[in-house]
């Protein structure tokens, strides 16, 4: 009995399978031992073990001597608790899922229309979701141990480990407009990014990590944009020291209540113009041009705009938002 309890304490992730395996071993072992001691066929011995373990006990096969009774006692104290453990584990799992999905409302359906998917439970996620929702976008957060109270109203949630391929598939990334990977650990960010690229090859992925080295590694793995939080904060602080109001300028640029940064397709009327000339003919403030994946601000030079370029513009927040289309 102590041996069985010790095994139960060590049961890990595959608890049900381990319990079923131990229970099956107890039935087979008990049935064979009973057949040998009671001098009955192996079939009758196994039949007796099954009826005993299931607590049915028809009584048509019973022990007749001390050895058989000892085996019966061992069978009762091993197989019965093991089967009870299986049913208790299944019941607890089902109850937990029901509480999570129904009573607590932790898991919602994936939005029917296009959305932005956020994977992870980084502290920046609630504020990112709030900004996206204020811009009229649908948001889906995929994370384990989701703090629903921290997320803004209207956020869709899929509860689960973002480093699991099954969880990622349940979030339907192939339907997402783009995705953000914001994990607490850089190793998890790498795993999630690789799985996303595998499940949804055309999905545009942005990742937020701590280290600039990891950010470069993610880009090498196929992530479209990888931001190093450590590097970004360092640059902002340094700029604030050189130009005291630089931080205020950046805050105003990203303040969704006043302005909105957008990335839009280059219209045909601007093709062939320099970026400085395009700034005089565009309603929005053109901050930079994206040419073949490279961002050019037109400070050191004045690049000519070509078909296929994209513009990064700053516009009033009251202007309708233009969603960036998915590649492909």
Question: Which terms would index this structure?
Answer:
six-stranded parallel β-sheet; rod-shaped; Alpha-Beta Plaits; single chain; 328 residues; alpha/beta; Rossmann fold; Helix Hairpins; four-stranded antiparallel β-sheet; 11 helices; 15% strand; disordered C terminus
Can you walk through the features of this model?
There is one protein chain. The chain is of the alpha/beta class. The chain is built from 11 helices and 10 strands. It folds into 3 domains: 2-103, Orthogonal Bundle (Helix Hairpins); 116-232, Rossmann fold; 259-328, Alpha-Beta Plaits. It is rod-shaped. The longest helix has 38 residues, at 66-103. Strands 3-2-1-4-5-6 form a 6-stranded parallel beta sheet, with helices on both faces. Strands 7-10-8-9 form a 4-stranded antiparallel beta sheet, covered by helices on one side. The protein has helices at residues 2-9, 15-38, 42-53, 66-103, 125-134, 165-170, 186-199, 212-220, 229-242, 246-253, 275-281; strands at 116-119, 139-143, 156-159, 178-181, 205-209, 225-228, 259-265, 285-291, 294-296, 310-316. Strand 1, helix 5 (125-134) and strand 2 (139-143) form a beta-alpha-beta unit. Helix 2 crosses helix 3 and helix 2 (15-38) runs antiparallel to helix 4 (66-103).
